[in-house]
Amino acid sequence: MNTSEVPSYNQMIQQSIQEHWFLDSMSDYGLFTFQYKDVARIIEKMHILFEEADIKQGDKIALCGRNLSRWGAAFFSILTYGAVAVPILHEFHPSQVHDIVNHSEAKLLFVGDKVWPNLNADEMPGLQGIISLTDYSLLVCHNEKLGYARDNLNRLFGEKFPSRFLPECISYYHDSPDEMAVLNYTSGTTSNSKGVMIPYRALWSNCDFAVHVLGNEIKAGDKVLSMLPMAHMYGMAFEFTFEFMRGVHVNFLTKVASPTVLMRALADVKPVILIVVPLIIEKVVRKAVLPRIQDPKVRVLMNVPVIGDRIRKRICDGLTQALGGNFYEVIIGGAALNQEIEQLLHSIGFRYTVGYGATECAPIITYNDWKDQIVGSCGRNVIHQELRIDSPDPEHIPGEILTRGLNVMLGYYKNEEATKAAIDADGWYHTGDLGVLNRQGNLFIKGRSKTMLLGANGQNIYPEEIEDKLSSMTLVGECLVIQKDEKLVGLVYPDQEQVKKLGLSRADLESIMEQNRKDVNPNLPSYAQLSCIKLMDNEFEKTPKKSIKRYLYT
To answer: Are the C-beta atoms of residues 377 and 435 closer than 8 Å to each other?
Structure first.
């Protein structure tokens, strides 16, 4: 598709607001709700502030806070004004937040109440103002006109719209396809973060993909539960912006997603679709499903014709109800799904699928509907994207995954060297991931090129494949495989809940992990077997999408 055919993304926002004026738009779950008309009112008020602060089209405005309705309204305010949104993950260290605000040259910062106490405004001298995401009050102001406008905002709004504020009153900035819309700093599992320049065409293309695959399943008035950070492209694209375009009611889970809080919210909201990272679904399966099928009698009965089918259906129904009971499918992405868990989900007929993407593609690259899901695969290339494997035999020999199309970023902000390394002369984005493609075009990821280890005789070792097997062993909570002196070492953080329940000592754990090593090695090639397992005293440091920051341990 030619970029000239890409419609204005901001006009789509405008149209959705106008069409769904009186529908519920965003809720801070259990607290309050904005209708689409309320979001429109906030957008206009923010535009007044931006104008008074002399913000120009293309200027950067940062947001840093947990998922909130006011975060979402502020985000759309930035885009529809023609400025560039800079979402910052609220889990970032304060020094990272300062660095990103400064590196992006942001003029304003919207900040959440949990983040603000740890920040230092003096470390961000380029800001004209800092705005609270609690009530849009000014926390810091270095611009007299901005301060005056905030103090008189309701009056200025009334002067701008002297009659009633109606759908036809709104008129938003008309964007062009290759114009930067979002500057998103990656969380980085193998290196420090980089500023990914996301154009409007990529936002539109991801939305158009979602319409093609889910448009018949999701309609205006439906509900979703937003659990993933909106500052990450995965959560932003498929738990927030797509739904907003369809008139869907987005419920933000503003509290920490503990099992109790999450299950209550799912039962209440009954989301029409679930977007999760593997960690969430794996925890639910281990708590709600595995105990039911570990009974020897149940295992025997599951192999009996008819009876086995009934048991699997009962287990699937129970898991479905635990997740709200109303979803079309559960889309899993952001990291690798444990294969044992996936085999189990597949065997009981659970409606799940596994997708694959990258921040640099805003984010989608491959996907299959749950009916077409193949165990171990993360789908086929999506609409508006091409896919290929850089390998002499893409079906059998892993090679780097390359993609090209409307989803691909403009490049890395102020980093031409990194941009040239990531996007070649023909426009192919080099993902850094390794995979194979079967004849039907289904992608199977084997690992990351940056994490691939080299065996003593030149063999390629993919630590993720070893970790997948190790994570299923007794008392393994989290694990990582590293190479030390040409030997492979498994780093394991034990399942603390089970350790405490069983009253195990460190000596007991070391003995169990040694047995795990002996049990897992026969299932691995000789060159990929573990020499030892080392216990970790603390959880691995993770990115906000719950991937281990591998570079810290290698």
So the answer is: no
Check if the beta carbon of residue 269 is closer than 8 Å to that of residue 24.
no
Q: Which residues of the chain have pLDDT under 70?
A: 187-193, 449, 454, 456-460, 544-545
Residue 4 CB coordination number (10 Å)? 7
Rounded to an integer, what distance in angstroms lies between the CA atom of residue 146 and that of residue 148? 5
Looking at residue 457, what is its pLDDT?
58
Phi, psi values for residue 530, rounded to 5°: -80, 135
Other Cβ atoms less than 10 A from the Cβ of 290: the count is 12
Residue 27 and residue 252 in contact, taking contact as beta carbons nearer than 8 Å: yes
Positive or negative: CA dihedral 345, 349, 351, 356: positive
Pairing of strands 453-454, 411-412: unpaired
> How remote is the C-alpha of 87 from its chain's centroid?
13
Sign of the Cα pseudo-torsion (419, 420, 422, 424, in order): positive
C-alpha separations of 503 from 117, 474, 493 in Å: 39, 15, 16
Buried b (16+ CB within 10 A) or exposed e, 181-201: bbbbbbbebeeebbbbbbbbb
The CA-atom distances, in angstroms, between 350 and each of 236, 312, 341, 414, 553 are 25, 9, 11, 45, 35
DSSP symbols for 360-390: GGSSEEEE--GGG--TT---EEPTTEEEEEE
Supply the pLDDT for residue 190.
43
**Strand partners of residue 542:** 548
Helices (H), 303-354: 307-322, 339-347
Rounded Cα distance, 102 and 349, in Å: 49
**What domains lie within the chain, and their CATH numbers?**
3-198 (3.40.50.12780), 274-326+329-448 (3.40.50.12780), 470-552 (3.30.300.30)
- Give the separation between CA 324 and CA 327, rounded to whole angstroms: 7
| Contact in structure between 138 and 150 (CB atoms under 8 Å) | yes
In three-state secondary structure terms, 198 is strand
* SS3 of 425-439: CCCCEEEEEEEEECC
Q: Which residues does 149 contact at the CB level (< 8 Å), separation at least 6?
A: 48, 49, 51, 52, 53, 156
pLDDT digits (tens, 9 = 90+) for 90-121: 888 898 899 999 999 999 999 999 999 999 99
What's the pLDDT score for residue 174?
98
Q: What proportions of the chain, in percent to the nearest 5, are helix, strand and coil?
A: 40, 25, 35
Distance CA 108, CA 150 (A): 13
